[in-house]
Amino acid sequence: MPSSPPVDNNGAAYFDFRAADRVPESHAWTALNEEDSAPVVAAAAAPGDDAVPVVDMRDGDTSAVAVAARAAEEWGAFLLVGHGVPDDVLARAEEQAARLFALPAAAKARAARRPGGSSTGYGVPPYLLRYPKRMWAEGYTFPPAAVRDEFHRVWPDAGDDYHRFCAAMEEYDAAMRALGERLLAMFFKALGLAGDEVTGGETERKIRDTLTSTLHLNMYPKCPDPDRAIGLAAHTDSGFFTFILQSPVPGLQLLRRRPDRWVTVPAGTPRALIVVVGDLFHVLTNGRFHSVLHRAVVNWGSDRISMPYFLGPPADMKVAPLMASGSPPGSKAVYQAVTWPEYMVMREKLFGTNVSALTMIRVAKEEDEET
Ligand SMILES: C=C1C[C@]23C[C@H]1CC[C@H]2[C@@]12CCC[C@@](C)(C(=O)O1)[C@H]2[C@@H]3C(=O)O
Ligand SMILES: O=C(O)CCC(=O)C(=O)O
Ligand SMILES: [Fe+2]
């Protein structure tokens, strides 16, 4: 297992990206897994098969549901348009995130993640600290419900800047959460469970009523040598699903299999949100929907901001495959029930081994298709 270099202040003492005229050894990206070296399909050239699917929520129910189902099965991700979240809500959130990252290092360092793998604050998420190299990015993680407490650390005077920031995040949170509930309903329809009152209706309600959310703001500074650095290394999201608001600068790439290749998600669709399926949704759907490896690359000319909004179960919920009462006879749950924290522990342990934590909770190996 690769050992991580020591990181000061729980990962909040970032390298001074602004002053960099080269990528130092500490940030020089090295491939860990085979996928890391897979070729990149140029966004403009991405034809037919490699064009990222687009789900338009305005397309009447059945057609949008069918497109979402195929995309979740075949890609584990898609672009979501017609989602109804007002432009100005997205624009304000993005603008405020940019203002946060533009603050002096000392202001941001006041909000450093606390020791012991704390899940909120400014700095590198604990899981990413396991990588042998640091990434070309700054990050800030927080549960949106706690935004007013959390950001007192950055703005102790609680002045106008503080209020503008918190109001924009609260608006973004409310919109994303409502959208999360709508997408959950679409996914349940797609799974053909909507008519199954026990497996469908009850579980859907339980998941919807207990959904938890986490916001993680990413800022990828422009980079003097983008091919030598990485913004965010290849990973799957561990929760149910993630909405990513990305700035007009491209950078997000999705891994497609057979043959392995990275497809760049176009950033030109105004106000489109990207939906990424996470590992626990992979489990919930018994592998029908796929969690997807994705990463963020950096570029020479511009900073890039992304604002992933992670939706998942509460910490004490056991997530198990949903088996519809109408499932074909003989179909079995392929995954063991697991809570989010249990899953995170497994994933930590497997870090650097090239084995997905999903393999650890897989039961009926012989029936399982490749993931
Ligand atoms: C709710 C979440 C989702 C987290 C953990 C926690 C807060 C930060 C998220 C990320 C963001 C960066 C990649 C990732 C892999 C990471 O290390 O931190 C994500 C992770 C996950 O999806 O597992
Ligand atoms: O920056 C992006 O587009 C992706 C961010 C992401 O995947 C994450 O934070 O988990
Ligand atoms: Fe991610």
From TrEMBL:
Oxidoreductase found in the keyword field: yes
UniProt-listed GO biological process terms: gibberellin biosynthetic process
MF terms in GO: gibberellin 3-beta-dioxygenase activity; metal ion binding
Chain ranges of the Fe2OG dioxygenase domain: 210-313
Cofactor(s) listed: L-ascorbate
One Pfam match: DIOX_N
EC class name: oxidoreductase
Catalytic activity: gibberellin A20 + 2-oxoglutarate + O2 = gibberellin A1 + succinate + CO2
Stored PROSITE patterns: FE2OG_OXY
Keywords attached to this entry: Dioxygenase, Iron, Metal-binding, Oxidoreductase
EC number per UniProt: 1.14.11.15
Keyword Transferase: no
Similarity comment: family membership: Belongs to the iron/ascorbate-dependent oxidoreductase family.
Protein's UniProt name: gibberellin 3beta-dioxygenase
Organism: Oryza meyeriana var. granulata
